[in-house]
Amino acid sequence: MSSASSVYASLRSIGAYAPPKVLSNCDLETMVDTTDEWITKRTGIKERRIAAEDEFTSDMGAKAANKAIERAGIAKEEIDLVLCATVTPDYFNMPSTACIISDKLGIHNVQAFDISAACSGFVYLLSIAKAFIESGMKRNILIIGAEKFSSIVDYTDRSTCILFGDGAGAAIISATSNKSEAIIDIHASADGAYADFLVTPSPGSVHPASQSSLDEGLNFVQMKGNETFKLAVKTLTNDVIAILKKNSINTEDILHFVPHQANYRIIKAVGDALKMSEEQVVLTVGKYGNTSAASIPMAINEIYESGRLKKGDLMLLDTFGGGLTWASALLPFAGETIQH
Ligand code: UT7
After folding, report:
1. Which of 137, 157, 197, 262 has a Cα-to-Cα distance from 307 of 20 to 30 A?
2. Are 169 and 247 in the same domain?
3. 162 C-beta closer than 6 A to ligand 1
4. Structural domain ending residue among the three candidates 179, 211, 231
């Protein structure tokens, strides 16, 4: 056996940040033709957080990252790769938000780059970090999912503005020789045939920024909500069944099922199809809405900070987003249980 094959990747810590400003359903009632009742019934969302005007994706990402680094008990100098998943970067398209976050953290001369996988971004990053570590190329990787989604939401479009919120989550993925701490498996996939389900048309090479692109609102997220909903339920369920089967793990072995927090009805349909109990399913959609790439790490952070997530607990992550992309991951929490 080569030395590289005895190195495993583990999720050593988690951190998150949610901006303090709350946008409630009642606030939205005054902005578009909607009601608290409709939003609650159709999505389970009661409120979401909105970043301040001068608070950017990198600021939120850096705050979440600082917590993850502190909780991992490592020095910043030990981090040898910084990865950020976002579809709302500080700049379209350079410098990357990962580079800006690195600078804000005081991490210099270290490889850093962004990926674009929408809501699946954090689980995609887990797969990249796992590969870098298992190949022996890196030892401590900072991964971040951060979004200022409010920067691409049209607050006159009731079909999208009720769903999304801002926030960030981060984790340290470290090399370990202890197999019981290792990320067990990750499935990540995509199908560009459904690219038009979730799109921000401009700016980009198809629609470079122009007065007409702004007049047409092409800088805002556009979504085929109902089609996305149906495909999300099917894909999320099938992906979980496949990853559990492949690893001979039963649903009841999962202590925390952490689905992408897009819509309570999607989570409920998937949870029911998989026969998950209420105790197993992690829910934050009610208070944060859909924070895209930040949704999964923010949800993990929620159970970590409440003391529900303990060292060694088996987690199942399951996500779905623009691209279309989807991914699931099976992993134990390899960090220390929080002490209150
Ligand atoms: O994270 C990325 C993945 N994204 C998702 O997973 C989002 C998936 N989609 C969804 O969550 C749901 O499709 C929505 C919550 C966006 C919409 O729920 P829906 O049950 O699929 O509603 P719909 O789009 O079929 O619309 C039903 C009705 C329409 O009215 P008519 O045509 O039946 O008269 C809409 O105009 O609801 C209307 N509607 C609203 N009414 C009040 C749409 N948005 C609103 C609103 N308030 N905010």
Report:
1. 262
2. no
3. yes
4. 179
